[in-house]
Amino acid sequence: MLYSFYFVHISKSAGTSVYANLPDDYKDRYYGERGKISLDHLTIQTAYDLNIINDEDINTKEFIVLWRNPIDRFVSTCNHLQITPDIMIDRIELHRDNPLENQYGQRSFYMTATDILQLNGKRIKTTDLLYDDADNITNVFRKHNINYDHVVSNTSYQRLRTGEIKKVFTKNQLTEKHLRFIVDFYKKDIVYYNTLYLYNNIC
Residue 151: is its pLDDT beyond 70? Predict the structure, then answer.
């Protein structure tokens, strides 16, 4: 079956919860591992270069994106990967300096949402939702005949609850140095997220 949407999985933004609600044939096409390629974590540019999406998709499909507070996303990535903020920053710098490093793996962990959404140097048109805005997310997927029940409770959260993994850091433990880096690196994401948050709370 052909679908009229493409879900862009920004890492640590409830993407696993979203995929859990999507049909199996959609997941067979766009989710999971294909050799060394993690389909669900591809940037738009890489998905396009691999012909997973094409010009017709860009022009006709609704590209759905869940936006999370970038500081929360940073901390969540640290907990998911079981690394400290200092190591996370080192890895971001490594991938920023070597953009082809681990191109088809988990590179999106170390990228901004803004960069993930780029195609040929320009951001594609997307439908942007706050990652915990259950009503809006449900309504968007229902437009595509997906019976969607959004719960921000993905595999990482379950593993945290059961004690299989433990939180390495909380947001309150970030130092001034960490925050300066986060604000600089995610500056475009922060501006966009804040705009989206204000719009949703005013309208």
Answer: no
Adjacent-strand bridge partners of 64: 7, 127
Q: Domain for residue 111, yes or no?
A: yes
Please report the DSSP string for 172-197 in residue order: GG--HHHHHHHHHHTHHHHHHHHHHH
Give the residue numbers spanning the domain of 145. 5-69+103-165+190-202
pTM of the model: 0.88
Beta bridge partners of 5: 62
Which residues touch 186 (CB under 8 Å, ≥6 apart)?
Answer: 70, 71, 73, 74, 112
What share of residues in the chain are helix, strand, coil (percent, to 5)?
55, 10, 35
Beta bridge partners of 63: 6
The secondary structure of residue 86, as a DSSP letter, is H
First to last CA, the chain: 35
Q: Is residue 62 part of a domain?
A: yes
User: Total domain count for the chain?
Assistant: 1
